[in-house]
Structure formats: C-alpha cells, structure tokens
Amino acid sequence: MKSLFHNTKRLKEEHKLECVGLDDNSHNPEKGWEIRKETQNVKILDPEGLQPISEDKLRIVCTSDTHEKLNTMISRRMIPPGDVLIHTGDLTHEGYLHALREFDNELGLLRHRVKLVIAGNHDHCLDRSMIQRYKDEDYIPYLGMVKSDVQGYVQRQTRLDLKATDVKSILRNCVYLEDSMVGVCGVKIYGTPWMEKYTKCVAFSVNRGEALLKKWNSIPDNVDILMTHTPPLGYGDKTHSGHHVGCVDLLNTIQRRVQPQYHIYGHIHEGYGIRSDGTTTFINCAACSRHYRPDNLPVVFDYPIPKRYRKSDQNWVKIIKEIGPPPIQV
User: Fold this and answer.
1) Which residues of the chain are modeled with pLDDT < 70?
2) Does 317 map to a domain?
3) Per the CB 3.0–4.6 Å rule, which of 68, 72, 82, 309 could disulfide with 59?
4) Rounded Cα distance, 196 and 212, in Å
5) Which domain holds residue 164?
6) Which residues contact 51 (CB under 8 A, 6 or more apart)?
7) Do residues 63 and 298 touch, judged by C-beta distance below 8 A?
8) Are strands 84-88 and 57-63 parallel, antiparallel or unpaired?
9) Cα–Cα dist 317/262, whole Å
10) Contact at 8 Å (CB) between 289 and 128?
C-alpha cells in the first residue's frame, strides 16, 4: 500500500497567493461545493501500510473528538505507539474543568514523546472569551453556576488563581496550540481551534465570512502539518443529513496559499476518513461516532524528518510562533 506522504510538488511560489480573499459563498457551503465539486480531485485513501518505526521518519498518531472517552480508548488499546500524538479538539464533552484535568491525566498514560493538542467547540473552559460574554449574574451552562462564582470554583477545582495564571496550565502532559506553531524535528506544525458559530454557547467560534477568514489568514505559509478542529469544505465535512458544512475559506486558504502536506481535523464525526486533492492529505480523525461512541481508530502516518534533524536531538520541540490573548480575567 502506498505511503500517504505526497511526492507531488507544491505549486510554484509565483502561483501561490499571499492572501486569500473572501469567497462569494462563505456563508453557503452547500452552494460553494456545488460550484466547485467538478474541479476538486477528491480521492479517498486507505490507511497507510506502516513499516516499523524508523529513525528518519516521525510516526504521527492522529485522533480527535474523544469527548471524555480517551480513557476508554486507552483501556481498549486503540491508540498505537508513535513519536507524536495529535489531538484536534473536543477533549471534553461539556467543557468542565475537572474533565480537562482528567484528560490531561489520561494523556500522561501515553508514551508518545510529543503530544500536540488544540481545543474544539466543546472545550468551553479553554476559551477565554466564553466567560467574558456573561454578566456577573448570568448563569453559565457549561460551568453550572453564575459568573460571580467562577473564581472560587476554579480555585477549588484546579488550585489555580486565574488572575495569576491560565486554565491552559492544567494541560501539563502536552503542548497546547492556539493560533501557534511548533517545530518537531524540523517539521512545522500549526494548530488553530476556530470554527463557524452556530449558537452562542460554542467555544472558539466566530461568524462565517470575514471573521473566520481573518483566523485563517493568520496561518503561516510554511506549515507542513495543519491542525484545525473544523474541516474544510468537501473533505470529510458531510453530516448525517448529507449536507456539507465545512469552511470554503479554509479550503481556499489550504489550496491556494498554505498547501500543507497534511491537514488534520475532526468535528464532523460522520466525516471520519482520509482524503487527498493530490497535494494535501486531509485527515478527519474524529474518534467518536455520531452517537459519541469511540468507534474510530486513530489515523497513523510517517513523516520524513528533514536531513539536518535527528530523533536523538535533545530539543525535539521548538515553539516557532505563539499568539494569543492574555489569560482570562474573571
């Protein structure tokens, strides 16, 4: 079985756009796909036939949307060994802080040398803006209390003072990416959690159109592996009702500007699988089914390490780009 890693050349630099403009169908993914489906060379791929882990390649294990079922997957031995574990969001189901701590403890049971994590729309406690949207007397559904009680709750649950630190510091067994990039043995991996807003109580969500495109325009050009929570239009974005819900501006950004070798994501559980457009391999690695059962195995592939890097190097992970607002204030 052929490797998932493409030897196809990316578009010549003069053909790549410096910035992708807003698509006419940003707010209408169904119409956007109908217009471009004949020109999209979508190929469904089988999982890669893997050789033993080698010194010149990173063994990368991808999963997403575990919804507090990571421990179940570990107990069932569903997560294979590897060098890098990638999780593209929905670590929790309702966004509770105690669930985030449990997730981090479960990550600590896994032996992957590097674990990269982004948030998803269910991970409310990681979104700084979620609490700020409420008034002191407002009831916050995912915390089960009014905003004025949040500070005491956080201190009891995490022993942290949010005025001095951040909820993200709960995640001690991984590298948390939020509009930021790391280099792992010279392989550049960028993670961003944003997605389209469809209701008020959705973490890391903004309106389709200019607001969401602004997030995608922050993705650097030189990314090898892109991590998002939401899928691009047409590649593992179809719901059980048969509708495409992916982001057309994300697809345009990937195909016209960034052109990563791999795009890893989840969110649409029914879209699990591996697809390619001939340049980028698109992997929807949602672990849970539509009914929130962890039925889907992680997707595994090997990524060649640039020649001047070695697995024996002491400093495996280098923070290349880190952007984000200051810690949440409550």
Assistant:
1) 1-17, 131-137, 139-145, 147, 150-166, 200-201, 321-330
2) yes
3) 82
4) 7
5) 20-322
6) 302
7) yes
8) parallel
9) 19
10) no
Six token digits for residue 208:
């389709």
pLDDT at 318: 83
Q: What pLDDT does 221 receive?
A: 93
Smallest CA-to-CA distance from 162 within 149, 151, 171 is with 151
Q: State the DSSP string of 144-198.
A: TEEGGGHHHHHHHHHS--TTTS-GGGG--SSEE-SSEEEEETTEEEEEE--EE--
> Measured between alpha carbons, how far is 285 from 275 in angstroms, rounded to an integer?
11
Which DSSP symbol is given to 235?
A: S
78 vs 80: CA distance, rounded Å: 6
Decide: residue 225, CB within 10 A, 0-12 exposed, 13-18 middle, 19+ buried: buried
pLDDT of residue 155: 56
Number of domains forming the structure of the chain: 1
**For residue 33, is it within any domain?**
yes
In a domain, 68, yes or no: yes
Label the pairing between strands 84-88 and 262-265. Answer: unpaired
- CA dihedral (196, 295, 104, 148) positive or negative: positive
Q: What is the CATH number of the domain that holds 237?
A: 3.60.21.10
Token readout for 235 is 């590649």
Is the four-CA dihedral 281, 284, 97, 83 of positive or negative sign?
A: negative
Confidence at residue 23, expressed as pLDDT on a 0 to 100 scale: 96
Q: Look up residue 20 and give its DSSP letter.
A: P
Which pTM value belongs to this model?
0.88
- Within a 10 A sphere around the Cβ of 309, how many other Cβ atoms? 16
Tell me, what's the pLDDT at 64?
A: 99
134 occurs within a structural domain: yes
Q: Which residue has the tokens 């024996």?
A: 312
Amino acid in the structure at residue 239:
T
The 3-state secondary structure of 51-104, one letter per residue: CCCCCCEEEEEEEECCCCCHHHHHHCCCCCCCCEEEEECCCCCCCCHHHHHHHH
